[in-house]
Known about the structure:
The complex is a heterodimer of chains A (about 325) and B (about 270). Chain A is mainly α and about 325 residues long. Chain A has a domain at about 100-280: MetI-like fold (Orthogonal Bundle). Chain A has 14 helices and no strands. Chain A has helices at about 1-25, 35-40, 45-55, 60-70, 85-90, 95-120, 125-140, 145-155, 175-205, 210-215, 220-260, 265-275, 280-305, 310-315. The longest helix of chain A has about 40 residues, at about 220-260. Chain A is flat. Chain B is mainly alpha-helical and about 270 residues long. Chain B has a domain at about 75-220. The model of chain B has no long low-confidence stretch (mean pLDDT about 90).
Amino acid sequence: MKYLVRKLITMIVTVLMVSLFVFIAFSVIPGDPAVGMLGTTATEEKVEILREQMGLNRPLPVRFAFWMRDFFFGDMGLSYSYHIPVKQMLADKLPITLTLTGLSFLLIVLLSIPLGILTSKYYDRFFAKAFDVVNQLFMAIPPFFIGILLTYLFGMLLHAFTPGNYVSYETDPAAFFAYMFVPALSVALPKAAMNMRLLKSEILSEAKLDYVRTAYSRGNATDQVLYRHVLRNALLPVVTFLGMTLTDIVAGSIVIEQVFSIPGFGRLLITSISNRDYPVAQAIIAIIAMLVVLINFLVDVIYPIIDPRVRKHAQ
Amino acid sequence: MRNKKRGLQFHIAISFVAVIIALVLWGLIRTPYDPKVMDVSLKLAKSSADHLLGCDQFGRDILSRILVGIRTTLMIALGTNLIGAFIGLLVGAVTGYFGGLADEVLMRFNDAVLSFPSILLSLVIIALLGSGTYQITIAMGIVFVPSYARIIRSEFMKCRNMDYVQSVRLMGAGALRIMFIHILPNIRVTLLTSLVIGFNNAVLCEAALSFLGIGVQPPQASLGLMLSDAQAYLFARPGYALTVGFFMVFLILSFALLSDALREDAHA
Lengths: 315, 268
């Protein structure tokens, strides 16, 4: 309980620090936000009235406090480019990015864990060694290039995927998931390669320990030793890695959405940075940052549950 | 057997890096064509004796642009790591050597920043500075500071109470002298390995930012920017994207192999 409270306090402090960082970063950008909204042709009076309405004449700490309050109540300001509430622009984008993140994570787990077990079980076979080379190669390919290669493979050679033919989840959920599969695979492959390598090296180093020899001497078969003893210990660093991966996937989706023309957070973020639409960029970065903090917190909470040593230390 | 294997990986990595250096030198001495000169008649031209890797959508020679692009990417990676390593060294050395409250506060902040994906932080700084070659070098350099600071701090903490440091302290050496004349040379292997890993990460990050259109700006060439252009012509001229992608993967793979080999050597 004490551990949980400590982690919760750390999370709140981190959220405050992150919010402050994002707020200050966007406050020191040169240029007047009121002029940004009204355009350079607006009269000085109009700009001054808007500045007052937006609270820009208040001191920075007061503005930060109001921004935090508004942000947590869902008021993220108005878009400079479209003059509509940012919240409205983001509402239908969040499920898209979360689906991409979730699907990628699922693929990483489904690919890396069975393959990691298989290649470590038969580590001296040719196919396991070949996998090592393939793994090294996949780790060196940036996800956006994997995306391009998969587009070529599924789109041009297999005709199983039409790039750019995104279908909204509101129109056709099945077609939406089918379209999201290739982008999710692009994000997942390099991370799955890394996780598979980690799991393999963990299993192989655990297999050299004394308790494994004891388990064999008690008459256990290889599979029993592997699944009942070795895997339990080998999976612990993998869980930590998967937690870190989840935050990377959230960020990686920014690039992948661009490759596959997916209208999610990432695509909107890049457009808003290019158009200098700061309220939108600020809101997206703050939301992604909060998601990262939340994921880190959840990993910290899960860890003592799966590792008795951490639980004991936490107590 | 293991040593022989490690040696092999190191030699492969060094050979790959030598090829990259040769490509950079080739681009520096003379590119086959001017990488910025357009020729509409050669739009998306296929490989030929005149243009070994063909031409892009504006009829520019792809090989010439790749040679310049590799150089741009490597210069950005170098700049990024110099900024990151220099500031990281100062922060890491001071916090690791002295410890205390400043260390606690700075490292808490450091850990908070480190837990964020580098591309997200780079985007925040690019939103501030704008896009362009110098801007992304500075942005990525700032983003790389915490990881260098963390590694250097732990090395300085390890060394600060070692016998040789105690001895020079007794001989009356000042803190600055101990930190930079005595401890720094002893952490060079860790620093070198971190630099190669950082170099690799910088190549990846630059490629991603330029691919997104907020890194290197046209008409300058960078592998990420070229890949972004090539994607639009993937079905018409797949060779363009595949060639640029091949060079990008080769660059990343070379530095990944080198960092792996150096890390294994350091642990051996």
